[in-house]
Amino acid sequence: MAPTQPPVKLSTAQTAEEEKNIATVKEYMSLAYSPKENKGRSTVAHLCTPDSTFTAPTTFPSCKTPLDYADSHAHVMASIADLHITSYDSIFAKNNLVLLRYSAEGSHCGEPHNGIEASGRKASWTAAAIFELEGGKIKGWTKEWDKLNMWKQLGWMKGDEYV
Fold first, then answer.
1. pTM here?
2. Distances in whole angstroms, Cα of residue 97 to Cα of each of 35, 40, 61, 133, 139
3. What is the chain's Cα-based Rg?
């Protein structure tokens, strides 16, 4: 059973195929962003093509596929154990492409992060993504996210060392 979806704030009319592509992206996001459901790549493998790619060079440079991202995100959620998407701010599709902008929040209430013990500090942030689908599965994903803003709110930065 897929987790409950957050509200959509802005979308447009879509074809039946575009609606299916949006549903696939929402399912991926629901699973990858669930501290309880995301056990890494095996959680989302059924939603991705075998040759899928992931690009987020400034925030997840070592991740090359959506499966790598699910693994990495499971690690982040071990520290932000209450992480959740609060809304899909914008989501729409055109043919095989889905554009998503979302808002999320959480607190450092879980495991230590890079040696920093849980502080309970809260953060909220936004991110945007462009997904390419093929045959109803995710073939490519490009993500932009203000990681430094989130890290600063959580106290994971000493100052502006990454700015």
1. 0.89
2. 27, 24, 23, 6, 10
3. 16
